[in-house]
Each structure stands twice: as structure tokens, then as C-alpha cells.
Predict the 3D structure of the following.
Amino acid sequence: MVKVTIDGIEVEVEENTTILNAARRIGGDVVPPAMCYYSKLKGSGGKCRTCLVKVSQGSAKDPRPMPKLVASCSTMVQDGMVILNSTSPEVVDARKSVVEFLLINHPLDCPVCDQAGECDLQNLTYAHGLSKSRYEEERRTFEKIDIGEHIQLHMTRCILCYRCVYTADQITDKRVHGVLNRGDASEIGTYIKNVIENDFSGNVIDVCPVGALTDKTFRFKQRVWFSKPMDAHRNCSKCSGKVALWMKGNDILRVTGRKNSFGEVEEFICNECRFEKKKTEDWTIEGPRHISNHSVISQNHYENTFKAKLASRQPKEIYGNKDSAEK
Ligand code: SF4
Ligand code: FES
């Protein structure tokens, strides 16, 4: 085990842990944002630079600082390392520049984008972005590519994080899409017109940090912050069957994997659960899903409303006795 200090907080982690994962052990504001790293996908990270941090002491043995900011998702900790994330003005400044760079070609179409309200880039921009763009050149545009019945590709929104490519590589039988071309001509595509279909292909939607890959069955149905996310499960022969249902009244508008506090799905789910099971009787509903206060989705206060509704009923009816109801 090695000891490292991040933003003044000491943590002990196994050797060969990345700085990002060490910070995740601490949690909260100490954790650098990550737009391309995804703990469940091998090889992910190192593409977007949003996770840059400053290493002000390399290790106990060699206390020299690292000369440049480093990508925390791909830099391993050393014993005695001292790292600065949000407490370093240099990091905060660099992150602003990275956001500005990511937004160079990203259209400002949040008002019509299904990902709005749960978009990592939108959140990152809110926390670290400039209020105006300085970019004056023409933005990239793309020919529309149809990638099948369930998934919509908006290439103009893609930030080339490669998560969808790794997902298709690692959890489906056959990948038919990837990053084509190089430099600013790079794009996600299927090369020879091809649809992405596979039992687990829908997971590319959940891993996409922006609205480049969205669920066609949910398109324009509802702003995500007006829906009620509920935890639910069913017996499924292909996946764990543990999902989040995004509901409006008793209608299921969308089914997704359950995401943890770092925005990563806990378990990948199959296309049958995601696209075909849209009736409440298909599911055992466990209750409202907890959404962080930082998310606009929590502004709907659906979780509190749900609890208030329960509390207004006779305590016995729900909790069995008054004591546990009060608790
Ligand atoms: S489509 Fe989404 S997941 Fe795929 S590379 Fe682009 S931003 Fe990343
Ligand atoms: S999350 Fe580290 S470079 Fe993208």
C-alpha cells in the first residue's frame, strides 16, 4: 500500500492505482472530472485531458514536482506523492482551457438535445467553462449516418472519447463502428453503412458523455429533469436485469443502466431490457433512485415528493409501526 495526499487529504491505496482512482476513494470535490476514462472499460482514458492535476511532490523518495500537469486517469501514484486538484489555480485554469477546446466543435444545442440535464460536458462547462466562445472559425459538420433502429448518432456532438468504441469492443460480440480518419477529420462511423445491432449495443448510449449517441425510443419524449428515475429489476436471462426506469406518471419513457456517483453504469444491461420492456408490469419497481444534489434532475424533488407522499399515509400501512415510520 502507498500513501498519497490529494488536496490536503491523505489516502492509502494499492500500488499501481491511478491518481484518479485514489481521488475517487476520497470522493467529493477532490475527484477530477473524467470525460473519457471509464473504470469498466480497459484502455479508456488519456484522450480528453479534463482530469489534469498538478503533482507538487513526485514521491517521498524523490520529492521534486512533476514539470507539467498530468492526466490523473493514466498516471500511477507513488508513495508520498502530493497532488493538487481543485486547490491549484493552475489546474483550474487548465481545465477551463480544456473545456473551451472541447466546445470548439460542440454545438450549443442543449435546448433540443436529449442528453441535456445529464450531459457530462454540460456539467463540466457549467463548473469550468467560459460564458462566451472565442471561436470564430467554421465548426465541423457531418453527413448524417443511420446506425440502426434504436440508436441515434449526432456526430457533431461527439468529443471523440472512444468510450463507445471500447464498449462495443469489450462487451459485444462484434464491433461494427469505430473512429474513422485522423485529426480534425476524425469521426465515429460504421464505414460501410452498417447498423449497430447486438444484444448489448445499447450500452454505447449510457457510456457516451455527451448527446452524440442517444436512445431513439426516448427522442424528444421528455426533458430528463421532468421524469422520475426509479430503480427496478426483472428476471433477465441475458443481463442482471437491474436498471433505472425514467417514468412520467405510470409510463416508462426510457430504461437505462444504473449510474454511480461518477456517472458510470454499475452493470451493463441488454437491449431487451433497455428497448423492449416499457410496461410497468415488466418490472419490479424498488423505489426512487437517489440523484445527487448537483444534478438538475434533482431539482424536480421527485425523491422528496415520493417520500412525503409515503409519510402522509397511515404509518402502519407502510412501515408496520409508528416508531419506524418516524425514523
Ligand atoms: S459517440 Fe459519444 S461515446 Fe462515442 S466517441 Fe463520441 S462522445 Fe465518445
Ligand atoms: S479522463 Fe483522463 S484524459 Fe480523459
